Amino acid sequence: MTFFGSSGASTESPPASEETVAEVPPSTGRRRGRASTQADKQAQTPDSRAVVVCGSDRTMLRVVTELVSSGEQVIAIVNPASRHIERIGELGAQVMGVRVVSESVLRRAGIDSDGTKPSAARALVLLDADDVHNVHTALTARDMDENLRIVVQMVNPRIGAQLHQLLGDCVVISGPSLAAPAFVADALEDDELTWLELGGRRMVAGPAALIREKVTVLADTTSSATPDLLPQSSDDPAGDIVLGTGVRHDVRRKRDVRRKGWVMATRDVLDRRVRIIAAVMASLVVVGTALTHWITGVEWLRALYLVMGAVTSAGIEDDVFADAPPYAKVAAVVVQLTGIVLVALLTAVIVDSLIGARLSRVIGGVRGRPRNHVIVCGLGTVGARVLEILSERGVAVVGVEQDEEAPGVQTAHRLRIPVVMGDSSQEETLRLAGAPQAQAVLALTDGDITNLETAMVVRDLNDDVRITMRMFDHDLAHKVERMLGLGHSRSVSMLVAPAIAAAVANRRSQTTVPAGRRVLLLTEVTVERDSVAVGRRLGELDEPGGLRVLARADGVEWDWTPTFERALRAGTRLAVAGTRSGLARLLLVTRAPHRPDRSGRIGP
C-alpha cells in the first residue's frame, strides 16, 4: 500500500470493538463479540524484532522518536557526519555510524534470513534524500529477506509507484505529498473540502456544489443532524457530500496574478541606465543632424542618415565632408568616437540586464500589483507540491525562490505561475511578490531562521495576512506562535513520522470526512492470503450505509469501474469508504485468521 497525505488524513490502528458495536445492529454486534472473544483466546505474542532505520536528516530523528516512543526496538544506521547522531543515540536507539549502507552493514543490523528462520529485524525504513540510494538499498534488503517489511520515503512518487512490482511488501511514503495539503489547508482556511490520495488518484470530498467529476455520494445531508451515509440515491443531490476528482472552477475565484511576459520583461531590461544612454545618443543625433544640414547644405533626411551612421559607428561618407571646414571634420570624428563608446555601453548594459537577471527571472516575474493571492516562499520539493495543489484549486499564487535550479521553479514555469527570484527574507523581494496585498504567505524554505525572518518581514508589511511557517525546532515554533503571534508553524518531519511509524506497525492510513455529526472513513485495504474474502465476489463486500467499494487493484493499476461479479484474490487492494463498524467488518474478512496486530490482539 502506498501512503499519501491529505489535509484530513490520519494513521490509526483498527477501530476498537467497543467503538464499532455502537453502530452495528444487535445481532451483528453479538457475532462480532464472539469473534473477538475467540480471537483473543488465540492471541499470540506480538513481533518484538527490531526495526532498522537508515538516514541522517531531520526526518530520521523524528521517525526514531516516534518508533521508540511506541515501544519499538530501533537500530539506526546513521552517517557519522550527521549532527543528529548523538541525539538519536540518546533516544534509546542502537546507533551504527556508517557512511555507505551496504549488504554487510544490513547483515550486521539483523537483516539476514536463510528461509528457515526469520531475520533479527522485521522491518527496514529508508529515509535517504536520494531516491536512487533508497531503491538500491531496498533491492539489496529484499534479496536478503523476501519477507522483510520495507518502508521507503521517496521524493519522486512516480518512481515509488513502481516499487511494488520489485519489492512486494513495500510501503512508499511521499513526504511532499503528505505535508503539502496541510500547508494548503492553513493558507486557505478551507474546512469544507478534504483532499486525499486514494486508489492511485488525487481526490477531494466536500459539498456537491463545489466538486466536479463526482465519483460517488458519501452522505445525504438533507437532515443535518443525522445524515444518511453512503446512500444509493438522494432527495437533494445539490446538498450532498460527494467524492470527486477536483473543484469546480466556476466556484473558485479567478486568478488575478499573471507572469510578466515579453512585453513587461522588455521594459525591465530597458532600465534607467539604458534610458540614459539612449537619451544621450538621441541628443547627439539631433544636434549632429542640425549642424550637418547647416554646414554641408544637405537636406534634412540625408543629414539624419549621415549622423546616424556616424553615431552608430556605421561610418561617414567622405564625399560629403571632403570639402567641409576642418572643424566640421573634427566634429564628425568626435561624434563617431562618441557613438562607438555609447554603443559599447548600451550593449554592455543590455547584456548585463539579461544575464544578471536571467530570462526565466525576467519573464517569469509578477505582472502588475497582485491582490488576494497566496505567496509560497521556498520552492523545494514541498513548495513544488504546494504550487501544484494551489494551481489545481484555481488559487492565485506567486512563488519566491533564491535558487533557480530548485524543483519548484520548473514546476512554476510548467504551470505558468509567476516566480520572484530572490531572498524571501528581504523586504524588496516580498514587495515584488505582492506581500502587502496577499491573503496568505507560506514560508517553506529549509531554514528555520529564514522562515522566521520571512514571517516577521511579512507581518510588518501586512497585518492581516495569514502566515504559516515550516519549522523543525518544536520549542522555537511554540515560542514564536505564543509570543510573537506570527501565525502557525508546521514541521514536515513531524507530519511524515507518524505515517512511517504506522506503516512499520502495519496500521492503515485513513482519511476522515465529516458529515454532520457523523463521519466516514476512506482508506485502502489489502485482501490477505488465507482470508475469508479470497474467492468471494467483490459485490458481496458492499453494505448499504456501512461500506462501499470504490476501486480495486490486482496489480499496479487501479480500476475505478470494477466488475462487482469478479472474484477477489490474495493481494487485491481495495479503495473503500465506510463507517467505523463497516471497516471493522471488512477487516474481519480480508485479514488472514489468527493474525495479531501490534498490540497482540487478533482481528480488527
List the helices and strands and how they pair.
Layout: E1 9-12, H1 17-21, H2 26-41, E2 50-54, H3 58-69, E3 74-78, H4 85-90, E4 94-97, H5 103-108, E5 121-126, H6 131-144, E6 149-153, H7 157-161, H8 163-167, E7 170-173, H9 175-188, E8 194-198, E9 201-207, E10 211-220, E11 228-229, E12 241-247, E13 258-259, H10 261-269, H11 272-296, H12 300-311, H13 318-321, H14 326-357, H15 359-363, E14 366-367, E15 374-377, H16 381-392, E16 397-401, H17 407-415, E17 419-421, H18 427-432, E18 440-443, H19 448-461, E19 466-470, H20 474-484, E20 488-490, H21 492-504, E21 508-515, E22 518-526, E23 547-553, E24 573-578, H22 580-590
Parallel strand pairs: 2-3, 2-5, 3-4, 5-6, 6-7, 15-16, 15-18, 16-17, 18-19, 19-20
Antiparallel strand pairs: 1-21, 8-9, 9-12, 10-11, 10-12, 13-14, 21-22, 22-24, 23-24
Helix pairs in contact: 3-21, 9-16, 9-21, 11-12, 11-14, 12-14, 16-17
